[in-house]
Amino acid sequence: MNSVSDKMSQKPTALSPAWLESVRQESRRKYSQSPLPLRTSHLWRYSDPAMFVSDNEAVAAPPPAIPRLSAPPAPTSAQVTVYTGATTVVSIGDQARAANVTILSLADALSTCPDLVRKYLGTIVGAEFGKFEALNSAQWRNGVFIYAPRGVQLVAPISVTHIGAEDDGWTFGRTLIALDEGAEATIIEEYASASDTAPARSNSVVEVFAEPRSKVSYVTVNRQNSHSTAYYTHRLKLSDHTTATTMAVSVGGKTLKADMGALLVGERAESRQYGLVFGSENQRFDHHTVHLHSGAHGYSNLDFKVALKDNSRSAYTGLIRVNVDTPHCEAYQSNRNLLLNPGARAESIPELEILCDEVICTHGATVGQIDPMEIFYLMSRGVDAQTATRMIVRGHVEPTLALLPSGVRERVTELVESRIAAL
Prior knowledge:
Elements: H1 18-33, H2 56-60, E1 79-83, E2 87-91, H3 94-98, E3 102-105, H4 106-112, H5 114-120, H6 131-139, E4 142-148, E5 158-163, E6 170-179, E7 184-192, E8 201-210, E9 215-222, E10 229-238, E11 243-250, E12 255-264, E13 270-279, E14 284-293, E15 299-308, E16 313-322, E17 330-339, E18 345-354, E19 360-369, H7 372-379, H8 385-401, H9 409-421
Parallel strand pairs: 4-6, 5-7, 6-8, 7-9, 8-10, 9-11, 10-12, 11-13, 12-14, 13-15, 14-16, 15-17, 16-18, 17-19
Antiparallel strand pairs: 1-2, 2-5, 3-4
Helix pairs in contact: 1-6, 4-5, 7-8, 8-9
């Protein structure tokens, strides 16, 4: 089943199966009845939850009809564009089309492969996850569904680009990715703005499911303009003998709060998670990562790098939890923050929660400015101060970039280099 199209209907068609409408109603109830998180609570001390509240009138009623893809599959096309109040462009290569990889709007997936969608949608990040996740569950319209069949091994990445709204209204996006047994795929998902001045606000949820012996690489890039506000929740669920490589690149937006993590439920599941943050002017970044081990012989490694200048701020909270009866796990976590001037500020809270013996776990964090002697050393060899700073920042992030798989590394490196050039 090759479910790729490059043409959209101009008139949205409502699609609301009974079970989905029930989920939406419960989600609206959860959102309306849940109080705002307290600023004194663990994950909200650096961000004001009131910034992510949607208009109550919008939540009181069902969301507008979900747009659907109406054109038949187009095997010669490499792109599918979904218009849902924002624009989503999905780009794939010839191999993905030939391998019958399913790429649909979530609305089309609900009618084309309803059993698959119902099996996965909302089972990791549902209404009970949190107030703003319940809001997304109730309101999402802009949805993408990606399914890699059993044994398919894709070389070229699947690229998903979301363009935010042109006004200050909220956009609710939902991405559902599932890899069947033995499948391999790479997905790069980018969030951009409609213009340099559009004050868009977005609430996005991503769920990724890796069935036994599958391998997934997932990269999310936030390059929205300096007027945007974004709330982002991302979870992977890893089965037996799976391998996941994930990276979050945050360079855009005025305010970004992201909650990212992996559930290592299978035996010998492996997760490598990387983060790169570049902040300038008055940008605010608040990232939370989590690795939850509930399968024996699991492995997780997190490397989160931050570089800040001007009056930008970064807050990072990372949790590793190894559950009871989960022996022989290894888990590592590192958060390193580089401050390029006195006005920048970074907070770091790494955490371990070990409920099982026979494990290997470490964590660590550093926050500091560039050593003036390093700048002096480079300048004494004919390098100007600005170039010296760029060289040091490049050295700060290069070890992380080198760990990325080919195909992803090139795209991320290009973006990082453009950001370093602006320092």
